[in-house]
Amino acid sequence: MQVVEVKNDGLIREYTITLLAGEIDERVNSRLSEIRKTAQLPGFRPGKVPTSLLKQRYGQSVMGEVLERAVGESSRKAIEDNTLRPAMQPNIEIKKFGVGEDLEYSMSVQVMPEIVPMDFSKIEVERLVAIIPDSAVDETLERLAKQYRSSEPIKRARKSREGDEVVIDFKGSVDGVEFPGGSGEGHHLELGAGQFIPGFEDQLIGVKAGDSVSVSVTFPAEYGSKELAGKDAVFAVDVKEIRVMVDTAIDDEFAKTLGQESLDDLKKAARDRLSLDYAGYSREKLKRDLLDTLEKSHSFELPPGMVDAEFDSIWNQFEEARKNGQTDATEEKSDDELKEDYRKIAARRVMLGLLLADIGNINKIEVTAEEINRALVQQAQQYPGHEQQFIKLYQENPEAMASLRAPIFEEKVVDFILEMAKVSEREVSIEELIQSQDDEDAASDEAAAKPKRKKRASAKDNAEEDAGDEKKE
User: Rounded distance, CA 183 to CA 20, Å?
Assistant: First the structure.
């Protein structure tokens, strides 16, 4: 094998690799000898088929197999002999080959850059700590109590009002034909709660028990059922009863229904959950500040192929989101301007990814199987009733399992750096913490053009959900 370097430019290496004809012939004959042992051709016993006949029958397929293996083995050896660290799969191109001739091919390799991590003790970042006021805890409990309200019949006959609960029988139809799932009996509906199709509840304000009402609505265009999406429907509604909502007292008894010993315990649980969730906001800001510092403090060449691949991934996601109407307003920018923004984002992601990977490898930071399994179980819990199928799907897909490892590894490297950095703390109000995160989101490069993200659940919402978990169980 002959290897000649023909290009050494930045992170690009190109080689011309030649395999002598004799070596190719030797490989072909060796493979044919293996085939001879089991080949069964009419008129010949196994192991006795002439080489000339084997070449005639299997020569073309054997040659393809031999060339593929020879190129793979020789390219790997060339990479090893030249102590290269490929950033991506090498690009192979056959230059010359014929029967009885040398095989010549080119190999282009993009190698990893040399990275020298900074002195992490020189990093200074600030961790914001949210002060949780009593009012935030009280508001959380009030909203939680509202979810557990009961109702009772009105004391004297009157028309329904917003906030009342009506008990109804209903039948829905489209173009005069009833549709599956469009009917119910004895259904309790709180007016103004937004539980039904937009416009439905509004038309039941001002009715009395015993009334029969025809409710006309239009199903939203994005309605879950394609058969009903965007369709006009009419519901025949019989009002059976009007009830008034009764507030739940926030006391020890209420706390016990949620699995707590007392109201004080419930308040502590709500405060703890609020603190935990707002700590998540703080972590996001701290991590972004750290990554910004790392980016500004390092400079090294990026493998162009990695940046191109990351850009393609980002742009494809953006186009898919745009097709589904899920992108932020970007009418003021052309596609060329958006692509320029996204290429900067891709370069930042590749740069930080390479840097964090290098830091992790140098310092032998590892992700354990237990940590990956824990992450897998957490993701599976998002699909109630299908947890086992989800886990099996991931376990049978190496790429899916690798996708679980990456964020865990990144967080561990970030924690490793923060242990050596100078991290100060500053107490702020909840509003200041959220505003600081929103300001950073708006100012970041990635805000230039990106798919809409779902509205972030508030810490108060999470606290309510957490406090109610035990009752649901």
Answer: 79
How far apart are alpha carbons 189 and 242 in whole angstroms? 10
CA torsion sign for 44, 47, 53, 58 is: positive
Candidate from 221-225, 257-261, 468-472 with smallest mean pLDDT: 468-472
- CATH of residue 69's domain is 3.30.70.1050
Q: Which of 454, 447, 453 is nearest to 344 (CA)?
A: 447
Domain for residue 15, yes or no?
A: yes
Indicate whether 232 and 191 sit together in one domain: yes
Distances in Å between the Cα of 133 and the Cα atoms of 267, 297, 396, 421 are 12, 38, 48, 30
Q: Read off the pLDDT of residues 207-220 as tens digits, 9 standing for 90 and up.
A: 999 999 999 999 99
Q: Does residue 211 share a domain with residue 265? A: no
pLDDT at 5 over 90: yes
Residues 261 and 241 in one domain: no
**pLDDT, greater one: 408 or 325:** 408
264 with 393, same domain? yes
Phi–psi pair at 402, nearest 5 degrees: -65, -35
Can you tell me the distance from the alpha carbon of 257 to that of 471, in angstroms, rounded to the nearest whole number?
Answer: 6
Scanning the structure block, which residue is given the tokens 């035990």? 470
Q: Is this model's pTM higher than 0.85 or not?
A: no
Q: Is 364 exposed, middle or buried (0-12, 13-18, 19+ CB in 10 A)?
A: exposed
Q: Is 80 helix (H, G, I), strand (E, B) or coil?
A: helix
pLDDT at 191: 95
What's the Rg (C-alpha) of the chain?
Answer: 33
pLDDT-derived band at 45 (thresholds 50, 70, 90) equals low
Q: Tell me, yes or no, whether 334 and 438 share the same domain.
A: yes
Does position 1 have pLDDT exceeding 50, yes or no? yes
Domain around 81: 2-110
Residue 265: its H or E element: helix 263-297
Total structural domains in the chain?
A: 3
Q: Are residues 219 and 266 in the same domain?
A: no
Joined together, the tokens standing for residue 461 give 């919402």
Phi-psi region of 440 (alpha: psi -120 to 50; beta: other; left: phi over 0): alpha
Q: Which of 155, 148, 149, 150 is nearest to 209 (CA)?
A: 155
